[in-house]
Protein 1
Amino acid sequence: MTEDSDEALMRGIAAGEERALRALAARHLERMRRLARKTLGSEAEADDVAQEALIRVWTHAASWRPERARLSTWLYTIVWRLCVDRLRALRTVPLEHAMQAEDPKPGALETLTRAGDLSRLAAAMRALQPRQRAALTLFYYEEMNGPDAAQVLGLSLRAFWSLLHRARQSVQQHMTSLSPGQP
Amino acid sequence: MTLAQFIHCLDTYGADFRRWPDQDRAAGERLRDTSPEARQRWEAAHRLDELFALDRASAADRSRESVITDAALRRIRNVPTRKSLDWRWLFRPPMGAALGATLAAGLIAGFYAGPVLHRSAQEMGPLAVTALLDGEEELL
């Protein structure tokens, strides 16, 4: 059985084929959720954003132009904008607290051998600005190249590298300060 | 490449030299292989990269994806289609005729009643108009 290309799937979605949306979700939803989860710091919020993003894909499928942006870039852009909307809505409560809210559901991370390191990483990520988290996620988790990641976040390439640099430095500093040997 | 430049690249692109800019890659690898401090910095960056990769691999939860997709499709099915949001039905018979008749009646009424009202207002003068607006009918 041959897999449909992204272009074929998007044509199917634009024509109203639910099967095409399911196939696209199977291919891309995990990464879309990861960006939302890392940016918002919450599984539940990430699920809502992912759901909303699929609806936007459905309603705007015809507007995607493969010659302008890769599908993954287009999808991440949708997710990032939805995250920004959520973060703006959260500003009614102090943003730092909203960003540091613990997900009530314990993750599988704690069961891993390097649980300590991973939970320190999670804490360090939570301490970052949402845009910094998104930059790290796109570059290191999703392995996007700089120009594409900059496009998703609506930044110049230079600004993106600067953001990524600050984000990674901050993570390292937080990880060091949270490590067991530190006072 | 200086150690400071090396550290700057590590702090931006990580320990994987494939992500580094082309012009810095070879110099970075050379420095890592010749400078103990650069090597130490690179190893620390590599540990962080590994942690990112581990975090990425451990957090996948495929079971939620179908739930999210199903929920999105349910909402999509319930969203009114563009056709039902079309306002053109207002301008087609019989609604179109009714709307047209109402507009025509309004225009005719405005044409004949407008001057009369305007004259009355002029005859009453500004004080009377103010009084009318204030609801003080005894002034009339």
Protein 2
Amino acid sequence: MVDKALKDMTFEDFCRSVFNTKDTFHKPEVLKGIRAVSTTQYILGPSCAAYLAELGAETIKVELPKRGEPMRHTTPFNEPFLYPLSRWMPEKGTGLGFFGANPNELFLSLDFHKPEAIEIMKRLAAKTDVFAENYRAGTFDRWGIGYRQHVQINPRVIYQWMGGFGGWGPGRNRASYDILGQAQGGCFSITGWPKEYGGMPSKQTIWIMDYWGGAISAFNIIACLYWRDNVSNKGNFLEYSQVHGAQRHLTDAIALYGKTGIVAQRWGNWDPLLSVHGILKCGKSSYPNSKNPQEQEVGFCFVSAFKDEDFKKLCGVIGNAELAKKYPTHSDRVGSDAQVAIYPVLDKWAADKTKEEVWKAFTGAGLVSQPVWNSNEAAEQEHWHLRGSMQWLDDPTFGDVLTQGVAYRLSETPGRIKNVFKPVGADNEYVLAKLCGYGGSEIAALEKNEII
Amino acid sequence: MYLWVGQRGQWGPLKDQPGAMDPVAQCSMGFVHGTGAPVSFGGTPTRSGWWLCDQVGGTFAAIGAMAALYAREKFLGKGQFVECTGAEAVIRIIDYNWAWNGMDGSVRPRYGNWDLAINIYAVNPCADGQIMVGGGHDRLWFRIWRAAGKAKPFLEQHICEDPKLRVVTDRLPHYQQVETYTTLVEWMKDCTRFQCETALQEEEVASGGVSFLDEVCEFPHYKYRGHVRLLDDGEYGQVLLGGSSFIGSNTPGRIKWIGRPVGKDNEDIYRGLAGLNRQELASLKKGGVI
């Protein structure tokens, strides 16, 4: 039974009310009471733990003392941006590379190379629901803190290993990074313009195979928590290979190769399956007087008109009835020769327009269109801020920061960002006292001996 | 759990027009603008060659639904409304773009197959295609140059003796990246991907050629692990596909079929869940309802 106030609302208002970001902190967290230990670095492992932390898991990030994990020192032009690195190094900072993959966590510093550290790891392992690591396959096992040892003291643990090529198989020993996952996974080879158009296989600019692999792993972990708590009372040993993630989603190209031997190629900003469904170059810059070279550039705008009636509308907008007559059906338009002929006509029409003018003309005719926004234009959209996917956060350590929010909306138990990250070793005392039973003088000794 | 997925959202000032698809999301949040080479390298904004926002959005939508399911069983006792969009999923994972923009209005520029924040960490040309080499920190940096130096000692010398490239942080400015990669390609241009890979892996440096789809499909490691596998589909016969990436000791993911013809399971569903009988089914069918 829907109450009357709810029934009379427009759908827009209903959504705005159930997903209202102002209510987020009045609602429960999904993973409250779940503990995760994350001995991860770079992006793949940390982002996996971060997605759990967004949902309320008590996530303990373990990193090396002093400098912390390498991603803290990865940043454009090496500008650290966020100070301090730790209470021991107030003059050093953390780079932007660390941003986005470590919110809401507790930060413990620990030097695994010392035997005392292994003891601490074992005490943490006994009390954790999720254990995530991305060291070279078998390293933790050798150190006595791998899944085999974990499961002896904590049979309900969900142990997630993440890495490049997987923990077993002929290529298991190869090291990997995001960009290697892109290159060897196959998605690199199909992005960018063809050679004839001056292009080459291209990287997806973001660390996509890492961030997205972390999401796939986080999904698997929550699914395993569900299975553990509702079905089996058992943990799981999980493994994620980042090249595997690439292959899983390239399945249409893989099927094409399997059936026909055809190797999918790059098709620039157009679409091999749909036409017109591509990005046009708009010859005029939207900010010709800007001092920022990024903004002086000419604009680009996406338009979709692959259905026959939409293509007719498109031809109407550009005032070219000939084109509509020449390519009346989708099969007339989708071949490579046709696309190579059609897009330059559209680009020519857009050559004396800004992306906004093009956008307006297309949407005015009822076509789906979207200008290519740079990160500044995107950050200025009220839409993302209203929905909580982007937000200005008053971070307890770093002050006002613009940060991404949680990727998805949940009406009853929304995820949330409490802080973007903390300095190295910020929660040493809290974690060691609460979970490992160390007193103040013991913790001080651990610090003095450079174990934490 | 009621799950809605889309490109930019079903509410808010930019809510989806009907028919919006993946590229709308890619263009609307900075991904396309940031991908591809800079203008000075002849590049333009570039969309991903695959449906990146759909894939990533789908994954986060699944996390949302799974989280809702977990909450329902664990403490909530009821379902909820879940919404996820392709654009917002990639907003979540587009590195540090927002933080940087928020600090000083910076627009993260395109940087082609290189990386603003790490040198060496890039894909560059070699004799038979392109190859990725990665190693920004000293341990790997010197190993990379040792590998190059085995074939062309003067290249190793050129880099390692340059005082301006001695410190990690000094290597990041654009002109130093140009210097580094020009020198590296001086070695790689005469070697195939396999030769480069072999030389670099001897030094335990992460490296790998840009693989085309046929090379991916035929790569022994992937076949062995089931990343790429042949499925004997009940409807469609032998299909090559990417196997489930959920590998777990107790609950591995699995692909049972790739899809089924439209309405294949009508009988089961309408009889089993909706309690329809043969006559009712026949009349719905006749009316074009199902």
